[in-house]
């Protein structure tokens, strides 16, 4: 084959892919690091379970199949923390398949667990009070040897902080704060310190801005907001406080999570009907469907995959 013939064939192949709907985006051409996968809550027609999938859409596996629902996955060193159908926390060892309940004597509903680097975790506790009022408490739980210590309230409950997102290094975390005003209830993005009550709000959209996700280099935040009418993914630079919208679609786009290299993000979108798991480059380019099933709560991880024993 002559060089000219090879060049011609490559051109024909590229045109054929474009006409056939082939994905020529940079994301499709990029290789993913070994061990990269995305955990998410997926619905197979019966219940919500925790699933794992590679960013290229391959190796889709179900990690839990207990009766009832499992959502809000958080993984650290082979330990899967999640919320069950009764909105209580459970911890599952992926190697043995054993699970146990956590904080069984704590009141209210438990939600949004996230691991910290020291092996402790944060979670949100919803206390349902009389007269249709509720309190949102952001708590931290640490381990003393093999036992979990009682939860410690991080901030006064009147702040109504939820969706905690720990920074990749240091003692800070991002959060969503529910704010009541004469204009109604809305949510803003803020950051706070783990060891004291120092906190500040980063957005002033007067809209529902939620689910912050910290970049691997600790310099930026992803979050979703409906400030322009529907939920889109936004990027906030922490140094300049400049923000820009990363998705601009009439569908629902939310639940962002960063790739380990910081070049892409996974998110939940309804752009093809039901809410599914998608990936998109940070610097622009088309979004790509990863898992064609109802999905929520994605978490991108590089933790080595273990063969989970089926319950």
Average per-residue pLDDT, rounded, comes to 87
Percent in strands = over 45%
Largest sheet: 4 strands, antiparallel
Q: Indicate the CATH architecture.
A: 6 Propeller
Helix content: under 10%
* CATH level-4 homologous superfamily: TolB, C-terminal domain
- Under CATH, the topology can be stated as Neuraminidase
Spatial gap, N to C terminus: 56 Å
Q: Quick one: overall form? A: globular
Order of helices and strands: HHEEEEEEEEEEEEEEEEEEEEEEEEEE
* Strand tally: 26
* SS-based class: mainly beta
Strand order of the largest sheet: 3-2-1-26
Taking all Cα atoms into account, the compactness measure Rg is 21 Å
Any idea how many domains? 1
| Total number of helices | 2
The top-level CATH class is Mainly Beta
Assembly state here?
Answer: single chain
Explain the layout of strands and helices.
Blueprint: H1 3-19, H2 26-29, E1 37-43, E2 48-53, E3 61-62, E4 70-76, E5 79-84, E6 89-93, E7 99-101, E8 109-115, E9 121-129, E10 133-141, E11 143-144, E12 147-148, E13 152-153, E14 161-166, E15 172-181, E16 184-193, E17 199-201, E18 209-214, E19 220-225, E20 232-237, E21 243-245, E22 253-258, E23 264-269, E24 276-281, E25 288-291, E26 295-301
Antiparallel strand pairs: 1-2, 1-26, 2-3, 4-5, 5-6, 6-7, 8-9, 9-10, 10-13, 11-12, 14-15, 15-16, 16-17, 18-19, 19-20, 20-21, 22-23, 23-24, 24-25
């Amino acid at each position: 084959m002559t060089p000219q013939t090879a060049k011609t064939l490559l051109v024909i192949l590229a045109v054929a892919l474009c006409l056939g709907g082939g994905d020529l985006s940079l994301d499709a051409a990029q290789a993913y690091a070994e061990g990269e996968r995305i955990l998410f809550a997926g619905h197979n027609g019966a219940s919500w379970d925790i699933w794992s999938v590679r960013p290229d859409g391959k190796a889709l596996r179900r990690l839990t199949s207990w009766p009832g629902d499992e959502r809000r996955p958080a993984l650290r060193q082979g330990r899967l923390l999640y919320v069950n159908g009764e909105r209580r926390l459970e911890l599952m060892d992926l190697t043995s398949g054993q699970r146990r309940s956590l904080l069984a004597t704590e009141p209210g509903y438990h939600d949004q667990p996230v691991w910290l680097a020291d092996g402790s975790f944060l979670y949100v506790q919803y206390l349902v009070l009389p007269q249709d009022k509720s309190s949102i408490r952001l708590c931290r739980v640490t381990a003393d040897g093999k036992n979990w210590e009682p939860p410690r309230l991080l901030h006064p409950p009147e702040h109504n902080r939820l969706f905690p997102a720990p920074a990749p290094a240091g003692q800070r975390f991002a959060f969503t704060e529910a704010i009541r005003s004469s204009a109604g209830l809305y949510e803003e993005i803020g950051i706070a310190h783990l060891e004291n009550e120092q906190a500040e709000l980063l957005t002033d959209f007067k809209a529902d801005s939620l689910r912050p996700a910290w970049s691997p280099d600790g310099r930026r935040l992803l979050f979703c907001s409906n400030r322009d009418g529907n939920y889109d993914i936004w990027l906030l630079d922490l140094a300049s406080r400049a923000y820009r919208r990363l998705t601009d679609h009439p569908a629902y786009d939310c639940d962002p999570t960063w790739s380990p290299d910081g070049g892409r993000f996974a998110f939940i979108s309804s752009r093809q009907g039901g809410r599914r798991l998608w990936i998109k480059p940070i610097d622009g380019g088309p979004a790509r469907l990863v898992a064609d099933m109802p999905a929520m709560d994605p978490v991108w991880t590089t933790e080595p995959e273990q063969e989970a024993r089926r319950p």
